[in-house]
């Protein structure tokens, strides 16, 4: 029963993390847009955009939310997948066929 | 490009000849129907990982995504990041468990798990719908490549490409498909990354040698010219939930991806092959984000940059699906264009091959096998040959009227697969109490919602907000608004499946034992995977998602 619960809970947590980091991370960028963006109408006259959203922070030249999006959906979820795989390999070796 | 492009033809011919050669060689490995459809389950993690990667990277990656990024900017990138992460979702929820089930196809799994020949046949119908959508988009891409190479109409390329891929799939079966996918996958990496590096270098990026992160220096210009490139807030945040549901459950529901897991030696190899695949898929997809960025950047730059001056008219007038080739030709030269075209062809062939084999397996093993269960394996092998040949020809003919945007057709395929096949597969693995009646109800609701919507939107040009879906349609506004349908269809499919299962008789004990076996248990325990926690959580989350999709419009105004 302990191994069964380990399997279920590790799977649930890992899936939730993968969903959050890789599936719908952008949802949090929208909900938390004040954290990631600064609004300005300083360039309104030049660009014609009603509100200009500029990123507050940059990583390697990229807006931080964009960097997190492309990295979490690749390396981030791969790491979580690796952890899950190692746990399942161990469970499988321990008591199964 | 006008007239014959000799170097491009040469490189592309090489890809085609090697692919057919692998298919011919693989004939020698195929003895039984098990070999023909699932390689006798002898494939190791590395080969399967490369093959899965080759299958995942299709023509849509090479040209469709760049076109969609030009139109959809951040939204297009977000859709592909969800697709990349979805492989890990498939790993965690489905891959090793399906491998232990010992089916040949996901349709066979549904038939066995839900003890229903009718559901197996219904799954085959759904499979054919999603495969035709997926195939049509990719074969269009092949037509584009031939048009670019030879200056011939797309039609010639569609017919030629369709014939060639049908040939090596029919000859080599799953062995041929696996090894060609692995070869084509490796080829795609080089044929994409190197030309894109050169394009970025020519545009002035210092870190061009690593395209996934090589264009940071070009961002300030983009912020000035196209600031909305990086804006996620142009849609209601529920849009991203739709992407998650459509991709994560869609990839599980798409039969050609799942079929790869029936070919590996065991569950462990299934797990590790997926990890290898996601590392490579992520590398390629992040490179394509760079390509899309370069395309938008170049369009903005064209007016003021001498090298691109002559191209500005081309950029504005051309079919967006050609942009990658145009950009490569102008900035990297014809030599690298030839390489990129060969890579695009390899990408298309690998995906088309995977789709053809699942169609053949579905029609012969699942449909014909259900109607005539006493047919022997030798007879199945003979029939498979002709059925796959017929399927290849039929798909080629149907692809003559291809979708306008390659990637949109693929996204519809994901959406239909998620709500109608992904849901019953996931619940079939993780909840013993899912019954035949529950699965049937969920599949019907999911398929009806998504397939009918696709028909109306794409075939009859009905606006998504005018679909005959009470309550739901009004929320499908905005850029790619129809995608938000997935945030209704998938949860509704889950809710219906769970609720109907609750009110119907439990599956037979033999089926419940299968669930324990899929999870690798040597013994059987009734209480495993039967608790109320999972179904209650699913229903609550599904209702929360639907509620979220229909609220907060005072906070997130209707943009677009």
Largest sheet of chain A: 2 strands, antiparallel
Our estimate of the beta-strand percent of chain B is: under 5%
What structural class do helix, strand and pairing data of chain A support?
Answer: alpha+beta
Q: How would you describe the shape of chain A?
A: elongated
The beta-strand count of chain B equals: 0
> Ranges of chain B with pLDDT <50 over ≥5 residues?
none
Secondary structure layout plus pairing:
The complex is a heterodimer of chains A (97) and B (560).
Chain A: H1 2-23, H2 25-31, H3 33-36, E1 37-40, H4 44-47, E2 52-55, E3 58-59, E4 62-63, H5 64-95
Antiparallel strand pairs in A: 1-2, 3-4
Helix pairs in contact in A: 1-5
Chain B: H1 6-26, H2 33-38, H3 45-56, H4 59-72, H5 74-93, H6 95-101, H7 106-113, H8 117-150, H9 154-203, H10 219-225, H11 238-253, H12 255-259, H13 267-301, H14 306-309, H15 311-317, H16 323-332, H17 334-371, H18 377-398, H19 406-430, H20 436-459, H21 486-502, H22 509-518, H23 533-549
Keyphrases for this structure?
heterodimer, A: 97 residues, alpha+beta, two-stranded antiparallel sheet, two-stranded antiparallel ribbon, 5 helices, B: 560 residues, mainly alpha, Sodium/glucose cotransporter
